[in-house]
Amino acid sequence: MQSVNSSDHIAKEKRSTSRLNNRSKSKKTRRFTIAIATTLVASSLLLDLAALPTTLAATNMSPSISNTSVQPTSSSSVEKKLYYTAVQGANYYTVALRSDGSVWAWGRNLWGELGVSNNVRYRHTFSPIRIPKLSKVTVISSSGGGNNAAIQADGTIWEWGNGNMPRQVPDITSAKNVSIGAFSTIVLLQDGTVLSWQNPPQAAILEQTRKQQTISGLKDIIQVESAGLQGYALKKDGSVWTWNEPNEPGKTPSKPTKLKGLNNISLITGADASLLALDKKGKAWQLDLEGKVTPLHHELKVKKMDGNSSYTLLLTTSGEVYSYGRTVTGKEGKVNHLSGITDVSAGYHHSLALSSEGTVWGWGSDKYQEAGAPATSSGGMVYKPVQAKLGIDIYLNGELFQSMYPAVETSKTIQLPIKAIAAAIGAEFEVHKMEDSLGYYTLKYNNRTITITPNEAHYRITSIDSSGEQLIELSEPINNYSGATTLPFEVLRGLGLNVSWDSEKSLLTIDDLEKK
Predict the structure, then answer these.
(1) What phi and psi, each to the nearest 5 degrees, are found at residue 18?
(2) pLDDT, tens digit (0-9, with 9 covering 90-100), for 215-232
(3) Computed over its alpha carbons, how large is the radius of gyration of the chain?
(4) How many angstroms separate the Cα of 230 from the Cα of each of 147, 220, 284, 339, 510?
(5) What share of the chain is helix, strand, coil (3-state, %, to 5)?
(6) What is the pLDDT of residue 380?
(7) What is the distance between the alpha carbons of residues 79 and 505, in angstroms, rounded to a whole number?
(8) So what's the pLDDT on residue 459?
(9) Is 350 exposed, middle or buried (0-12, 13-18, 19+ CB in 10 A)?
(10) Which of 3, 228, 231, 366 might form a disulfide with 27, Cβ 3.0–4.6 angstroms?
(11) pLDDT for 164-190, tens place per residue?
(12) Do the bridges between strand 240-244 and strand 230-235 make them parallel or antiparallel, or are there none, so unpaired?
């Protein structure tokens, strides 16, 4: 439905948190529901960890060193206070834009929706994963088919998902707004003209899809939307135009025509095959499949909206959220326990709200933890909105560390994906079996060895420089999240590393002082 723009948000937060209510309008796009089926393959790591009663998530493959990278980004560039500026709910996953221009995702990673791997699948994660290769992002957009797009401050467009890792779209350097749908991507350029192209069903047939084409006759456009096989554009004069988006190569988009019954429109958003529109008086309208325009709850004065074929979210000027149709909780009307909301997003099975403080709240289906936290009710449901976590950055010796498995903030500590961390710092992590069952773990670095036993909240340190050993208490035992073996970050101090956690910056730093 609407793509989401956040460049103005970032500048305003730097001046004062009290100005967050003045954020520029976010824009989103949405998607068609696509039934997805797959057979998950269990990994050897998961089999090793099956005996652990503290396991919180399942996976199908073990972490791979080849999917881990260290990016040369200085930790000094991280802002002092971070928050979310935009959010998109998709099909069993969520994408969010952070105030430093980074993009994060959580939920299900089936076909690379989370941007970290297209062949390593795991069922769920509530801890945000940073999308690689993206920086200084101003707009995000997601679709129900697992396609995602982002615009960077330099006007370039990046796409990922549905079998594709993040990659730059060629020949575009002046993008202003993007709307990615199930079948096509529509882009508004800075000069007010519009481009579109066909989304590949999968990466293997990328070259067989319809290439970029200019939508003829459109100018002075301020917003674009993709809904089914239709494209929509909003002009400065408040009129809305539409055209057909062909879903095969060799075809060209039809000539745009002006929609009747929609005047003085200030915002549009796609709702699968239909369209929602908001006029300058705060009244919402719906365009059905036959092209008929009908009022949508005109008893409410609306400032933002979002929807799909199942239900609609309406955000009032007073910051209250209303949900109508086949809602994600089965209840229509006002969504309780939300206040000061500045934007909403209608995922297919979960709903999301962005507050004036830059926090994201999710409710509805949480089978894959797409709402942003473990389910709070039976059947994998969240009926009362829960606050999603803020993505955690890890810096190793001053450089940004990135892995397909995220750091996880618990109530007591930060759990780290230890195999990936160990490989990056040059440590040796081993799993030791005893009579065909998991016995203990060892972590070796320089002249120190740490021994950890499952379910025990302590570890032992031995050193070649000492004849004895130390027993160190832990806040919680070694664990497993989303298929990765994790351990509390404090353990790394036992290796002689300087490790610190800054909750306000959501920043964990790990330094080997001997290498500096």
Answers:
(1) -70, -15
(2) 999 999 999 999 989 999
(3) 24
(4) 17, 19, 20, 35, 50
(5) 10, 45, 45
(6) 94
(7) 7
(8) 94
(9) buried
(10) 3
(11) 889 999 999 999 999 998 889 999 999
(12) antiparallel
Concatenating the DSSP letter of every residue in 353-390 gives EEETTS-EEEEEE-TTSTTSSS-SBTTTEEEEEEEPPP
What is the Cα–Cα distance from 300 to 292, expressed in whole angstroms? 21
The burial class, CB within 10 Å (0-12 / 13-18 / 19+), for 333 is exposed
The CA distance from 497 to 508, in Å, is 13
Nearest residue to 26 via CA among 410, 306, 399, 256: 306
One-character DSSP codes across 2-25: --EE-HHHHHHHHH-GGGGGGPPP
Q: Is 67 left (phi over 0), alpha (psi -120 to 50) or beta?
A: alpha
Record the pTM: 0.84
Spell out a b/e string for 396-421, using b for 16 or more CB atoms within 10 Å of the CB, else e. Answer: bbeebbbbbbbbbbeeebbbbbbbbb
- Give the end-to-end CA distance of the chain in Å, rounded to a whole number: 48
Return the closest-CA partner of residue 301 out of 287, 285, 286, 315.
315
What pLDDT digit, counting tens, does each position of 294-320 carry?
999 999 999 999 999 899 999 999 999
Q: Which residues in 171-187 are b (16+ Cβ under 10 Å) and which e? A: ebeebbbbbbbbbbbbb
**Residues pairing with 149 in the sheet:** 141, 159
φ, ψ (nearest 5 deg) of residue 365: -65, 135
Burial zone of 151 (CB within 10 Å; 0-12 exposed, 13-18 middle, 19+ buried): buried
CB 332 within 8 A of CB 324: yes
For residue 148 the two structure tokens come to 């995602």
Question: Residue 96 corresponds to which tokens in the numbers above?
Answer: 């969010």
**DSSP conformation letters of 389-436:** PPPPEEEETTEEEE-SS--EE-SS-EEEEHHHHHHHHT-EEEEEEETT
Number of residues assigned to the chain = 516
Q: Would you state the structure tokens that stand for residue 355, as one six-digit string?
A: 């507050």
245, two tokens: 């988006």
Q: Going along 236-301, which residue ranges are E strands?
A: 240-244, 257-258, 265-271, 274-279, 284-287, 293-296
